[in-house]
From TrEMBL:
Residues 136-406, 439-627 form the TRAP C4-dicarboxylate transport system permease DctM subunit domain. Keywords: Membrane, Transmembrane, Transmembrane helix. It comes from Halalkalibacter akibai (strain ATCC 43226 / DSM 21942 / CIP 109018 / JCM 9157 / 1139). The chain crosses the membrane at residues 32-50, 62-81, 93-111, 117-139, 151-168, 188-215, 318-339, 360-378, 384-402, 409-430, 436-457, 478-499, 519-538, 545-574, 643-663. PANTHER family: BLL3936 PROTEIN. InterPro entries: DctM, TRAP_DctM-Dct_fused. Pfam families: DctM. It comes from the Bacteria. This is TRAP-type uncharacterized transport system.
Length: 673
């Protein structure tokens, strides 16, 4: 087979630019300004990499860690994101420089004064008050620039409720409005901005965004897409099925539906159109599969780390419970795609146009190892940041030495020996964990094995080169990709603070339960609607935080197990990402598909709705969640029976939505489905 006949993923140089534009930044920088952002982004990534592997630096507590994390994020936001889109800026304007410097100064002030008497006693000085107000304004403005107006509007409503709540009637009435107390609680305690969401962003989320960015820089995206195409490409609607599988795998790691949709959609959407899918349908399939990846273990975007803080479960227990519903939801998307292809008689790609699976695995297969290492350390009981750190260590070792030793075996082996010896020596000199040296050693041996395998089968090395340029690009992309999460979590902290300070956290479950009249199905239906409305235009992390605080406790109060309640709101929070009219992934891919954004969003919602009722299943019958508290309660035949009946329901619902099964359905057949 000639190389010209093979279809293989090629990275689009415009992808990063497109992602930034869709996130609200069309500021294209060159020269020293681009270098400045690169340096700050690398510093941010290296700081989080260090803390994940070695813990917090001496004198740095959890709150200080959050301050550093937020300060990095705010500074980068004002340097990267213009005050509004469409300005076509090619440099950082003077006022954004000043705002970025102000953000750094505020961060330093918070760090330097967090143990001052005025802060510890709650009696703020005038300067404390000014800095608190400034921080609040910076967080809201950065959120507007990066996430958009919806989250800022919601935050403004909550702030207004704090100050005007005494004008309302019970049960929403409260009498706790006080300006100074509000600023103090929001900015100087762990009740507001520096609460659980930002802590999760700083401790858990960033390191996984970094892992995903480096993995993408090594060519993992190419591997996932090539393997998915090889597995599904020749079948009916093959490119669409390949898009579902590859986008799901990447979506679990990236945690950003927009970035994932653009990265994989750049390649998969033209292929889907080529075999006969309509532009808006091709875009919708990419939207659905990219968004739903955030439900897929082992990484689940950022949601699993948030759930650790909001539920009593461990990471391993969360991903085990999420596994079956996630797989069922992707089977629903695949079946929806299959029916769509059958309706319009869309075939797959010729087998000779697909890349050899053996070639792909020999070229890139080693990139699966870091994911396996990650899961191993998580199951073994290591902390989540530690597991991600070890996975990054072996990933970097593999990426660097598979290229270096292929180009110059002798020099590569010498450098490998030096690096391996250094890592082992540091275990004794600086008490580095022995796992670091082990990961480096395994990475070197696997890299050598891959090179010998490539030579044995006369297969060229992977075309994606990995050197310092790619490493720095991965660090920068990680920092850029994290900004949405950083500012969304900071603003979500304001919402959580208002809910707790006003006593709304205790009242909301009672209000919802009373409104539903103790009818669980009615409460679940109200929750579904609330998830879709609150999640419009918001990143999944912010949506989940709001719903976990406001709605999940009501479901728990009505007898839904904690895990089921939180997975319920997470599932529909992710679905909200696909819901028109504010559907960011649809706007992202519509430019690639040359389709209308709203119609693309409608198609995305359609393809994601095959498992629309699945959360109702596991909320009322938790067998398929494999809950720890149910261990030993159900036999595997019972679990298999529940999975089968859930799958049967999904198939019937997909048939109903598509109005097609082998042939177009009659009216009564559709109703029966």
């Amino acid at each position: 087979m000639s190389k010209k006949e093979e279809i293989s993923y090629q990275a689009d140089p415009e992808v990063e630019k497109k992602v930034n534009e869709l996130a609200g930044s069309d500021r294209v920088l060159r020269g020293w300004m681009a270098l400045l952002i690169l340096v700050i982004a690398i510093a941010m990534s290296l700081y989080h990499l260090y803390t994940a592997g070695f813990g917090l630096m001496p004198g740095v507590g959890t709150r200080t860690h959050m301050i550093i994390h937020l300060t990095f994020g705010l500074a980068l936001v004002f340097l990267i994101f213009p005050i509004k889109r469409g300005l076509g800026q090619t440099k950082i304007v003077w006022y954004d420089f000043l705002i970025a410097l102000l953000a750094i100064f505020v961060g330093y002030y918070l760090y330097a004064n967090q143990t001052s008497t005025s802060i510890l006693t709650g009696r703020m000085s005038t300067m404390d008050l000014i800095m608190g107000i400034t921080l609040l304004a910076l967080v809201l403005e950065s959120t507007r620039r990066v996430v958009g107006k919806p989250l800022v509007i919601i935050a403004s409503i909550f702030i207004a409720y704090f100050f005007l709540g005494h004008y309302l009637n019970p049960p929403f009435r409260h009498t706790r409005a006080n300006f100074e107390n509000f600023i103090y609680e929001m900015t100087y305690t762990t009740s507001g901005i520096f609460s659980t969401p930002l802590s999760v962003s700083a401790v858990y989320v960033f390191i996984f965004i970094l892992f995903g960015a480096i993995l993408e820089a090594t060519g993992a995206g190419k591997m996932f897409i090539d393997l998915a195409l090889r597995a599904f490409g020749k079948y009916k609607g093959g490119p669409a099925k390949a898009a579902v599988v590859s986008s799901g795998m990447l979506g679990s790691i990236s945690g950003s539906s927009v970035a994932n949709a653009v990265t994989t959609g750049t390649f998969t959407i033209p292929l889907m159109k080529k075999v006969g899918f309509k532009p808006q349908v091709a875009g919708g399939i990419e939207v659905a599969s990219s968004s739903s990846g955030q439900l897929l273990p082992p990484i689940m975007g950022a949601a699993a780390f948030l759930m650790i803080e909001y539920t009593p479960y461990t990471y391993a227990e969360i991903i085990r419970s999420a596994a079956i519903p996630a797989i069922l939801s992707y089977i629903a998307i695949l079946f929806m795609v299959h029916i769509e292809a059958s309706k319009h008689n869309i075939s797959g790609l010729p087998k000779e146009m697909l890349v050899s699976a053996r070639k792909t695995l020999i070229q890139h297969g080693y990139l699966i190892l870091p994911v396996i290492i990650l899961v191993y350390f998580l199951v073994r009981g290591n902390t989540v940041p530690n597991a991600a750190f070890f996975a990054i260590v072996i990933l970097l070792t593999l990426a660097v030495f598979t290229h270096r030793m292929r180009e110059k075996m002798g020099v590569g082996l010498l450098i490998a020996a030096i690096v391996g010896g250094f890592a082992y020596a540091m275990h004794f000199v600086l008490d580095w964990r022995i796992e670091i040296a082990v990961m480096v050693a395994i990475g070197i041996f696997v890299a050598l094995f891959v090179i010998l395998l490539q030579k044995q089968f006369k297969i060229d090395a992977a075309p994606v080169r990995f050197g310092m340029r790619e490493l720095f690009a991965g660090f920068e992309m990680a920092a850029r990709n994290s900004l949405t999460v950083v500012v969304a979590c900071a603003t979500a902290g304001i919402l959580i603070g208002v809910i707790n300070l006003t006593g709304l956290s205790a009242k909301l479950p009672i209000i919802i339960v009373n409104f539903a009249g103790d009818n669980l199905y009615l409460a679940l239906a109200f929750t579904l609607i609330a998830c879709l409305i609150l999640g419009l235009g918001l990143p999944t992390t912010a949506t989940y935080v709001i719903l976990a605080a406001m709605v999940a406790p009501a479901l728990v109060q009505m007898g839904v197990p904690i895990m089921a309640a939180h997975l319920f709101v997470l599932y529909y929070g992710i679905l909200a990402d696909d819901t028109p009219p504010i559907n960011l992934p649809a706007y992202a891919v519509s430019g690639i598909a040359n389709s209308e954004p709203i119609s693309t969003g409608i198609q995305g919602f359609k393809f994601d709705s095959g498992a629309l009722l699945l959360p109702f299943v596991f909320a009322t019958n938790t067998v398929i969640l494999l809950l720890p508290e149910n261990a030993g309660l159900y036999t595997w035949p019972v679990i298999a029976q529940n999975i089968f009946t859930a799958l049967l329901g999904i198939v019937a619902f997909v048939v109903f939505i598509q109005n097609f099964f082998l042939v177009k359905l009659r009216f009564y057949e559709r109703l029966l489905a």
